[in-house]
Amino acid sequence: MAFPLPLLGLLSLSLFLTTNAFATSGIRHGIIRKLSPPNVSIFREAPAFRNGETCGSQPIDRIHIAMTLDVNYLRGTMAAVLSILQHSTCPENVEFHFLWARYEPDVLASIKSTFPYLHFNVYRFDSNRVRDKISKSIRQALDQPLNYARIYLADILPPHVKRIIYLDSDLVVVDDIRNLWEVDLEGKVVAAPDYCHANFTKYFTDLFWSDKKLSSTFSGRKPCYFNTGVMVVDVEEWQQGEYTQKLEEWMVVQKQKRIYHLGSLPPFLLVFGGNIKSIDHRWNQHGLGGDNLEGRCRSLHPGPISLLHWSGKGKPWLRLDSRKPCVVDHLWAPYDLYRSSLQLLEIAYNVIPCVVKG
């Protein structure tokens, strides 16, 4: 009778997940991992996806995608990666570049066990590089140093990466990512869907607009809002134009004068607003997480969709698990590789006797 104690622990796991999983702003992978059965990943293994006949096999055929790795958003990252591979004509040509704030062996093990055939690299983003430049915003999640890592991509990526797609972790792709990768930048540094119908003035404070020297930065431009969770970036042009430094300069101004409220987005608008390559809105059906304060449900915008993005406070995995999902959250669910507490219990009944016999 060596297994009642582990079994008791697993029963406690079910209760723990039910009562505590939503007390935080996201699923904390480290907490769940420690309570899961021995040698069992909390994510299911994804299928192996193979290239189609038209795919090349040379370095030039690679599609480079950058994402951040955060234990609080790991469930979202897994779903995003699966969606990209599943809808790609050439999934073996997709190479992921993950940025994290510190070495997380459990996170790395989860990626390897969930996607055994994935081509990926992991880079450490030094949070100290940006920590003293961050100003408090309207939502704590926006103040995390890793949220600013996209500003430093050109300094972190290896020299052979000349172009990169940056993606947030709270999205799924429902189209061939190669269609986004092959967009013609037309000499621009950044390509993204922009939204000129949005009220651009609200992204900055009255102090900014009343200061003629500051607001004149938009002189000669017609700036429009764009979401930085989906961008195609010319890495070489970024480096040559020293855009990291330009973004940092605005962050310093923000520390002194409080000219905006929304984390890492406004510096991008200040530097690139009105000077990006605009691409089809289908590549960022954003705002599905609601606003930044309450995260209320939102419906889809009309038109074709290639990418669904739960930007905003509400995240689909949290709303689904709380049994209070929005309608759009069911579009994310098919890509969720997370094992529920009941699935872990079912596995445990098979795992524990083996552990006891061993």
SSE diagram, text form:
Elements: H1 4-20, H2 29-35, E1 63-68, H3 74-86, E2 94-100, H4 105-114, E3 119-124, H5 128-131, H6 153-156, E4 163-167, E5 171-173, H7 177-181, E6 190-192, E7 194-195, H8 206-210, H9 212-215, E8 225-226, E9 230-234, H10 235-240, H11 243-257, H12 265-272, E10 277-278, E11 307-309, H13 316-321, H14 341-357
Helix pairs in contact: 1-14, 11-12
List the keywords.
358 residues; alpha/beta; Spore Coat Polysaccharide Biosynthesis Protein SpsA, Chain A; 2 domains; 7-stranded mixed β-sheet; 14 helices; globular; disordered N terminus; disordered C terminus; signal
Please, could you describe this protein's structure?
By secondary structure, the chain is of the alpha/beta class. The protein has 2 domains: 1-39 and 341-358; 43-338, Alpha-Beta Complex (Spore Coat Polysaccharide Biosynthesis Protein SpsA, Chain A), CATH 3.90.550.10. Helices cover 34% and strands 12% of the residues. The chain is built from 14 helices and 11 strands. The strands form 3 sheets. A 7-stranded mixed β-sheet has the order 3-2-1-4-9-6-10. Strands 5-11 form a two-stranded antiparallel sheet. A two-stranded antiparallel ribbon has the order 7-8. Helix 11 crosses helix 12. The radius of gyration is 21 Å and the shape is globular. Mean pLDDT is 85; it is low at 1-38 and 354-358.
